[in-house]
Design goal:
The protein is an alpha+beta fold and about 500 residues long. The chain is built from 14 helices and 20 strands. α1 packs across α3. The two termini are about 50 Å apart.
């Protein structure tokens, strides 16, 4: 049996089954990690997370062989690429060049890619390529090693779910949305004409099971429609596949979606999941973990290129060979010298005894213990420093509503509308403001300009209203800032 583990925040999902091109599911486990031990796929408390996993693994008798990890983290970046047919080495170089604008050092990161299509006429492959920090992956490898488990692979949640949808959902619809509900996190995957185009994740703040929660899920679909509008995609969404909600909620959710202006029908995901009715709902909720049971090719495994690096390091150049010869010659000379020294040592046993007594004396032993204690304290302080540094790096990734962002909003509105900043939600990175204009067309031209700005990840707006007091049309706009926008540039 194979095991696929999904990590994101506190909820950890584990799928057990047979792995391959046609996987099968035997069981699903869900556990909640200690609070604050893992945030956005980043380990914050190594020991707490390891001990929780170790005890849960043993309590449920989960297999320890053939274990794969599916990781959701904002530290892993992905891109849609068209790559010419090349050998593996040149393909890696081509992909790395595409990530050159990320300002990351090659030796600190590792690549993975998932094949999502191929154009035989142009002889190009469509890949979803991803770049992950080695140190982040190394921490997960270490946790499982200390549990006595050697990971066979690490895949990103985005690449894994995109591959799953490409293989199992495109036969039923070419232009569709896969919506995965996982507690307060909802993820949407957009396919257009059989090819992946867009992925987003939105955090919901209402209680699951309420109408307000369903409204949050439906609003996340509006962002995909805005993307399609901005990209001038004319294909109509044929279906919305839902994973993570019960069959009883589908009819209610269908109506909620229509109330938000989305006419596409919703249906539960039932492809590639367990045929066991007792696992039906659990398997939908654990779709990310289940996607890891499907063999997506060795290139999608981040660990493959860890091993490639190690093989390169084994290559011995001619200078190193000469060094080995010199070392071997020196070893022979040393063996001869050892014979001489050994004979001299026999005559110095009494002096050796004096030195041994000194090393085992109470005063020396006490000094050694003091040194060991200081070393342990130093290591503890260093571990705390690394944890604090990780938190600081995570905070730096959040956007800030700076004067530069406000100036960009006002500059974009010039000639179309007057704006008034209403609020900024730091948790969501969302700026809310009101735009007024005498012309409805000018307001929507302004919205189109906002969609073109790279500093905004999403632009959401309500319908306009007409204010009779000043004879202007008014529309409320919510702009979610992209990562690091507004943060001061690092020196």
């Amino acid at each position: 049996m194979s095991v696929s583990v999904y990590f994101s925040n506190q909820i950890i999902q584990i799928a057990v089954g047979k792995r391959g091109k046609k996987a099968s599911l035997s069981n699903v486990y869900t556990t909640v990690a200690p609070e604050g031990s893992i945030i956005n796929g980043i380990i914050m408390d190594f020991d707490a997370l390891r001990e929780h996993l170790r005890s849960y693994w043993r309590a449920n008798n989960i297999p320890t062989k053939d274990v794969y990890l599916v990781l959701n983290s904002n530290k892993i970046v992905g891109r849609n690429l068209e790559v010419p047919n090349m050998n593996a080495k040149n393909t890696l170089k081509f992909i790395m060049r595409e990530f050159s604008d990320m300002q990351r050092e090659d030796e600190d990161n590792v690549l993975a890619s998932t094949l999502i299509g191929q154009d035989r006429k142009s002889r190009k492959r469509r890949l979803y390529a991803e770049l992950a920090p080695k140190e982040q992956l190394r921490e997960f490898i270490t946790i499982f090693m200390e549990m006595g488990i050697e990971l066979k692979g690490i895949m990103s949640s985005e690449g894994s779910i995109i591959s799953y949808a490409s293989k199992h959902l495109t036969p039923y619809a070419k232009t569709f949305i896969l919506q995965i509900v996982n507690g307060n996190l909802v993820s949407n995957v957009l396919f257009v004409d059989g090819f992946f185009r867009y992925y987003n994740s939105v955090r919901c703040f209402n209680v699951p099971g309420t109408q307000e929660y369903l409204d949050d899920l439906a609003r996340s679909l509006n962002q995909l429609e805005q993307f399609m509008s901005a990209e001038r995609i004319t294909s109509q969404v044929e279906k919305i596949f839902i994973a993570g909600t019960s069959r009883d909620d589908i009819s209610i959710y269908n109506q909620t979606v229509r109330d938000h202006g989305v006419e596409s029908p919703c249906e539960l995901v039932n492809t590639g999941l367990s045929s066991n009715p007792t696992l039906a709902h659990e398997s939908q909720k654990a779709l990310y973990a289940i996607s890891g049971l499907y063999d997506q090719g060795s290139d999608s495994n981040f660990l493959k290129h860890f091993s490639v690096k190690r093989e390169d390091a084994k290559t011995i150049d001619p200078m190193l060979k000469k060094s080995f010869i010199m070392i071997f010659t020196t070893l022979i000379v040393m063996l001869v010298a050892f014979g001489i020294v050994f004979s001299m040592r026999l005559s110095r046993d009494s002096e050796y005894e004096k030195l041994r007594d000194y090393n085992t004396s109470p005063s020396v032993t006490l000094q050694v213990e003091q040194y060991d204690n200081m070393t342990a304290r130093r290591d503890a302080v260093l571990a705390k420093y690394n944890s604090i540094n990780t938190v600081v790096e995570t905070l730096k990734s959040y956007p800030v509503c700076s004067d530069e962002v406000i100036n960009k909003i006002e500059e974009t509105a010039r000639g179309y509308a007057t704006i008034e900043i209403l609020s900024f939600n730091a948790d969501e990175g969302k700026v809310s403001f009101s735009a007024k204009s005498a012309s409805v067309n000018d307001i929507y031209k302004y919205i189109d300009k906002l969609l073109e700005e790279k500093i905004f990840r999403t632009v959401d707006h309500t319908g306009y209203t007409y204010d009779t007091s000043d004879n202007l049309y008014d529309i409320h706009v919510n702009c979610t800032l992209a990562e690091r926008v507004g943060q001061p540039e690092e020196e």
